[in-house]
Amino acid sequence: MHDFTYHAASSVADAAAKVAGGEDAVLMAGGMTLLPTLKQRLAQPSDVVDLSGVADLRGIRVEGGAVTVGAMTVHDAVANSPEVAAAIPALAALAGHIGDPQVRNRGTIGGSIANNDPAADYPAALVGLGATVCTDRREIAADEFFTGMFETALDEGEIVTSVRFPAPAAAAYMKFPNPASRYAIVGVFVARTTGGVRVAVTGAASCVYRESAMEAALEGGFSASALDGMTASADDLNEDIHASAEYRAHLVGVMARRAVAACG
Amino acid sequence: MPKDGIGASVKRKEDYRFITGQGAYTDDIDRPGQTHAVFVRSPHAHARIASVDTGAAAAMPGVVKILTGADYAADGLGGLPCGWQVTGKDGPMVEPAHPPLAVDRVRHVGDQLAVVIANSAAEARDAAEAVAVEYEPLAAAASIEAALSPGAPQVHDEAPGNLCYDWEIGDRADVDAAFAGAHHVTRIELVNNRLVPNAMEPRAAVAEYDRATREYTLYTTSQNPHVIRLLMGAFVLQLPEHRLRVVAPDVGGGFGSKIFHYAEEAILTWAAGKVARPIKWTAERAESFVTDAHGRDHVTVAELALDADGKFLGLKVDTRANMGAYLSTFAPCVPTYLYATLLAGQYTTPKIWCGVQAVFTHTVPVDAYRGAGRPEATFVVERIVETAAHEMGIDPAELRRRNFVPADAFPYQTPVALVYDSGDYEGTLAAALASADYDGFGARRAESEARGRLRGIGLSAYIEACGIAPSAVVGSLGARAGLYECGEVRVHPTGSVTFFTGTHSHGQGHETTFAQIIAERLGVDIDAVEVVHGDTAKIPFGMGTYGSRSLAVGGSALARALDKVETKAKRIAAHLMEASEADIEFADGQFTVAGTDRSVGFGDVALTAYVPHNYPIEELEPGLDETAYYDPANFTFPAGCHVCEVEVDPETGAVEIVNFAASDDFGNVINPMIVEGQVHGGIVQGVGQALLEGCVYDDEGQLATGSYMDYTMPRADDVPSFTVSTRTTPCPHNPLGVKGCGEAGAIAAPAAVMNAVHDALGSRGVSRIDMPATPARVWQALNA
């Protein structure tokens, strides 16, 4: 780890000021990606601004048919929240299968989505549920938030404060994990929402995306059989030592069908 | 029998310190004035070193010393030695120089060429990054196939075509003749996948030099400190044993990877003399991936000839084995004497030929890894037997029965050098099949099919040669060491006992198992026994722990030392009771004059030995401290049968192990709980090889699986609860009748799992799938 200056932020405004004041400052939420990166000397920030002391950023609120999760809420809290389990059980289940117990007790939703790892689980939930990302400056629809591999719509120094999930009529997430890392090789989040059926795919491509053909097929009849024979297009899908693009394309269909079936 | 004696599942004495965090591992050792080392390692698989400029690095804060390959060469010291010379068809193997710091060429990613010593590890790391190395990258040969292809980049100039040796066992013409009369020939090609050992504790070392005594001390993560002292002292640094102490304290897993003498040990010891301060080095996990000797990595074609009844007539095996970039300590013997000699398996195959080409590549050296040669042999034999059974329409269990070495045929001479000592292969097969409910498989398969799943069952009737080894035998085969073991039983004046063993425990539970043997023999409480290992200053000598040898060889040395203790104690007891030595009986800690009620306790005898007031001092020395060296008469031959049942999801390719049953013959068992734990761990490692672990180098020789993000270690949820049991045929040639259990699971399981996977996929026309059978591979095979 290279040297850096550590700052404990006391509030969102304080964090914003400290990030702005650093030459090459970074925000740290749970640190689940940042810390290993620093330990391997793959990053050399001048300043690390730690959000863990900002109490306002933690917590889960359910009101008006929506679940709002504070940016610094750890996965374990979402997984074990009775309110989340009642309102959006698929979200609790997804959070309960991120990483391992250590990660789930350190990693946060804000950190996960701001990092936007192409194989992370949360981006599928946000896009699948049509969530809204709230920042210290504005609100951003999930469909516009994830812009590319490790890229988001966040501006320089902009801080995620919470994520608001509208409760769907039904939803389910099916993940086929990478056997080594247990990140998603393919994860598909399917939801029936007031705005229609949404099918969000993570792990398969450089960034979470929606399978519009599957959404259209499910609009015509919400059953797993509506997706029979459907796969994703292998064009532009990820390919690595664990899975070919064709395999990922196939798994998108399998996971989507299983997710639809799990919606009941 | 005392309650904690032989056969009792005594909870492990050592676990209190491990569970409470009190274990003392090498990295826990801090010496006064200690410095820290970081090695400069090649990022290239193959490159010429044009220049090494340490100027800027040396000026950085905290830097104490930077030493390069040129510095080492200037001192005229030795290279890392190889402990086993294999002689091939064309003469002795090619044994290239292995400088502990590379001088002009690097030959694998991770090859070390300089060491930076600084006041802190962070300063050493900063400075190591500032060492300016100018590389001229060269083309690399990163696989067996690449290294053997015409015009391949050469790993060593002295090894043309990258061939280390071309070796064979058996008479090829004889075997060809057997094939000529065959009713059926089964042919398979297979890959035994390369594995990264991944001990939980990474390698580490602390070296120091005492200017007053001129003594060097090396603390190191080793399975065999005396071997390290011998190799490093005599061959590398030219230090005599009396001025070199090697300590292997608590070690967190080895699996073979900590047998070998590594460059870091020698460089730290050498450098400690130069800086006259202690130096510590601990590998980071990423460093372990590119410096710990890897395991397996064979490519094999095998053919089995059978008659119309399914009797095996002959076996031909042609194997290419990857040695990596340099010869690690025992690398050459693994794909030869620890592999080809096991190709008879449990069968009466009369004619066997095996040819092995050992190949240099631009990868990390490959050496022994849990099982070492025997898993590779078992995989060949059990895959081809199972395949032959399916091809001939004979039940795989029945085909095995028709070919087993019968229980009354021992000792049994195989056509590939070994003489099996004892066994009951039908017995372990029957027990494993019963545990696995083999007969009920058809119904379970139908039930799976109804759910859209493919179910398969696979057997692995394995054999291993353990208890390495009769020194004269291995010497004649090229071993440059004897492989006996040493034990010293020191009875203290108050009757407590310290046992010094030349074996080393790094997870095996020796502190408990050996203590049980002593408790049983001397009638003392197990808590009155301490087992000491891992320090050349304390232990008379030792060859260490590997090849499931600790109990069979080290335990035998203990038994012999206990015999000596008993003999001397009886003489003392006879004197105390004024009886004839021949009339003294010893049981449950009491010496009794036969046929009388006169007796004296073991503790009183011990005290008398050290307070010899009433003592036969003219005939007997005081003290009760006996040492024995035991050189085994033969290998031991643990064997058994493992049965695996899998369910495959054809939509995703995911394989789930739904049942795993094992019946093993380890000879007599000292601690059933520890044996069960060893079997469990071995099976999990075998499952890891079969389904999860695959070390992948890309064509440029970069390690594509260099972290746990890409290298899949088995986890608890990858395996079911195992059903394991033991059946005993005692080893007839060692005093405890024991055979060894440490490697069986890793040897047996890969074939059992892969036979089950092939059985599941066979109905879909899949005839070959290589390990690891990952979901992606299975899906690919199903959709090819």
Structure characterization notes:
The complex is a heterodimer of chains A (264) and B (784). Chain A is of the alpha+beta class. Chain A has three domains: 5-49, Uridine Diphospho-n-acetylenolpyruvylglucosamine Reductase, domain 2, CATH 3.30.43; 57-166, 2-Layer Sandwich (Uridine Diphospho-n-acetylenolpyruvylglucosamine Reductase, domain 3); 170-262, CO dehydrogenase flavoprotein, C-terminal domain (Enolase-like, domain 1), CATH 3.30.390.50. In chain A, 31% of the residues lie in helices and 25% in strands. Chain A has helices at residues 12-21, 34-39, 75-79, 82-87, 89-95, 101-104, 109-115, 122-129, 142-145, 212-219, 245-262; strands at 5-8, 25-28, 47-50, 60-63, 66-70, 132-135, 139-141, 146-148, 151-152, 160-166, 170-177, 184-193, 196-202, 209-210. The longest helix of chain A is centred in the C-terminal third of the chain and has 18 residues, at 245-262. Chain B has 784 residues and is α+β, with helices and mostly antiparallel strands. In chain B, 28% of the residues lie in helices and 23% in strands. Chain B has 20 helices and 30 strands. In chain B, helix 10 runs parallel beside helix 19, helix 15 packs parallel to helix 16 (550-576) and helix 16 (550-576) crosses helix 17. Chain B has three domains: 15-20 and 484-630, Aldehyde Oxidoreductase, domain 4; 31-138 and 200-253 and 258-291, Aldehyde oxidase/xanthine dehydrogenase, a/b hammerhead (Aldehyde Oxidoreductase, domain 3, Alpha-Beta Complex); 298-469 and 634-782, Aldehyde oxidase/xanthine dehydrogenase, molybdopterin binding domain (Aldehyde Oxidoreductase, domain 4). In chain B, the strands form eight sheets. Chain B has a seven-stranded mixed sheet, sandwiched between helices. Chain B has a five-stranded mixed sheet with strand order 9-17-16-15-10, sandwiched between helices. In chain B, strand 21 and strand 22 form a beta hairpin. The chains are: A alpha+beta (264), B alpha+beta (784). The A-B interface holds A 1, 40-41, 176, 179-181, 241-244, 247, 250-251, 254 and B 122, 129, 286, 651-654, 692, 696, 704-705, 708-713, 774-776, 779-780, 783.
